[in-house]
Model the fold of this input.
Amino acid sequence: MNPLPSHFYAMIDPIAGHDPVDLAELLLSAGARVLQLRLKEIASIDFLSSARKIAELCRERQALFIVNDRVDVAILAGADGVHLGQDDLPISKARTVLGDRRMIVGISTHTTQQAIAAEQDGADYIGFGPMYAGGAKQTRIAQGLDKLRAVRAAVRIPIVAIGGITESTARDVLEAGANAVAIITDVVRAPDVKSKVRAILSLIDPR
Done:
């Protein structure tokens, strides 16, 4: 079962100077239905404060809210799920911490082997990338569409592709097997975030 209600997986990342809550409001008002809060360098109390406010906004708009890395913040904020990295808690440990909470658990993967392991460990979806060079992390080595196709052939759970994806490449990524695309730089550095999101949605998630 696909837990993702949209082909567009919006990322709340402050790399362009946005306040996280303000950025979440922009994304939601433009039609985003899945949001992940990604705050790498911030005090835990501020992370939780932003997460709680965004969780409320998402509940009001009936959007899915995922917290990056922090299982504790996801629980305390009342998020719908948590997204883990390869160096974060293993999925089994995260499930133990979550207890009987019915929360989505996703995990970043970079190889077919990691993707298969994630599915076997009970991930609800996987992130896969980086798809293209550049992006928020200025990646030099990309996975590319062929590797995405290989991962698609190897696992049945949903795939969120990430890394250097733009409005112009989003459909190619979906056609190669991704269930959703996570786009950071092309969205948050756009002169008009709402217009950019609407343009992406009109291409990949028409209603």
